[in-house]
Amino acid sequence: MELTHDVAVDAVYVRLSAKPRAGACELDERRILDVADDGSVTGVELLYVSNGVDVTGLPRADEIASLLEEHAIPAIHPSRP
Asked: Which of 12, 32, 49, 50 is least surrounded by CB atoms within 10 angstroms?
């Protein structure tokens, strides 16, 4: 898993797999999943990250949250108490 942070556009890309990207699935206006031909998620694009990232529903959400927090980006878990 690899994180790339583009501060200029307030975005993060988390690479989950080396498989080639075949398409994308928009979860909402701030979270986009890249998918391979077999339907597996290859990466996650996160927009407007400076105010925190909702990791609910993301694949490998706990791992992504830890990686974000290592880069001083708040991870939000709305379903957690």
From this structure: 50
- Residue (of 72, 49, 59) closest to 17 by Cα position: 59
Q: What is the dihedral of CA 63, 28, 77, 60, to 10 degrees?
A: -20
Residue 81 falls within a domain, yes or no?
no
Tokens in use for 63? Answer: 């791992």
| 18 within a domain of the structure (yes/no) | yes
* Percent of the chain with pLDDT strictly greater than 70: 95
| Global pTM value | 0.91
Query: For residue 77, what pLDDT is reported?
Result: 84
Which residue, 68, 60, 55, 75, is CA-closest to 16? 60
